[in-house]
Write a structure and sequence with these properties.
Layout lengths: L4 E4 L4 E5 L2 E4 H23 L4 H27 L1 H6 L14 H18 L8 H4 L3 H14 L13 E4 L11 H23 L7 H17 L16 H28 L1
Parallel strand pairs: 1-4
Antiparallel strand pairs: 2-3
Helix pairs in contact: 1-6, 2-4, 6-7, 7-8, 8-9
């Protein structure tokens, strides 16, 4: 057994205000969303973009993220259960948001916003993705409080015992691994954006984020307990879904970026 194991017996409810229960998951989601907005707002101001665009865009992206992430969880991971219990789809406060679905939802929401507001698609994605790792990391902290998205049991020198699940053995805290991975990616993106934004073609940082995030996601999945309906395959559902954006990003960097760079120079 892990000799540095931490016993996680924290309630998923952060505090109560009368009949209202505020859960850690929702609180972490709100904190991550606020910090993401503040960082992107700072970038918009520095780049002299229209801040009013960010205000309207934030609403689209919020609903795109929540709806896409929820439907991704429903259909990628447990479609049979949710189709049999459709009311459960609405109970997002219990957790259950899939990042792959969230990415699709955000993409479609931004596409819709750009069409309605008649803004070129390539204008804002590079600024927006710099903030994405912040909220992604806080969502994983919310997963940790919820004792969900579990890692494999471990006999290494660290681990977390999820007491709320009635367990007495440590697991890899993959939620924390994922949160750290996201925040490291966020730091890398921010530093590169700050130094090289004017030297890079449009959408460079969007594709770089795709490559870094989904490659990191693919790696972290090796410590995650099996999720999804593909038990007969040697990879997790999250890894399978990550292959597609990784390939798309690689195609961009191998075939399109060199041509863009040559034209820019």
């Amino acid at each position: 057994m892990s000799y540095l194991s931490f016993t996680h017996d924290i309630s998923s409810i952060a505090f109560s205000a009368g009949p209202l229960e505020v859960r850690w998951y929702g609180l972490m989601y709100a904190v991550g969303l606020a910090l993401t907005y503040l960082l992107v707002y700072k970038i918009f101001k520095k780049q002299k973009y229209k801040v009013e665009h960010l205000d309207s865009l934030a609403l689209y992206l919020f609903f795109g993220l929540v709806i896409g992430a929820r439907l991704g969880h429903v259909f990628f991971y447990n479609a049979e259960y949710f189709l049999a219990n459709p009311v459960e789809i609405l109970k997002i406060w219990k957790g259950g948001l899939a990042s792959h679905g969230g990415v699709i939802g955000v993409f479609l929401a931004y596409l819709l916003w750009s069409k309605i507001h008649k803004v070129k698609f390539i204008k804002y994605p590079d600024a927006l993705v710099i903030g994405f790792p912040i909220i992604a990391g806080f969502i994983r902290i919310g997963n940790f409080f919820n004792s969900e998205i579990l890692g494999y049991p471990t006999e290494s020198s660290w681990g977390v015992i999820f007491k709320q699940l009635g367990e007495d053995f440590p697991r890899h805290p993959v939620q924390l691994y994922s949160a750290l991975m996201n925040w490291v990616i966020g730091i890398i993106l921010y530093l590169l954006y700050k130094k090289y934004y004017k030297k890079t073609p449009p959408l460079f940082f969007m594709f770089l984020y795709m490559l870094l995030y989904f490659s990191g996601r693919f790696i972290v999945e090796f410590w995650k307990d099996l999720q999804g309906p593909i038990e007969d395959l040697p990879i997790q559902m999250g890894q399978f879904l990550s292959i597609f954006p990784i390939v798309i990003a690689l195609v961009y960097f191998v075939f399109f970026y060199p041509k863009q760079k040559a034209r820019k120079s």
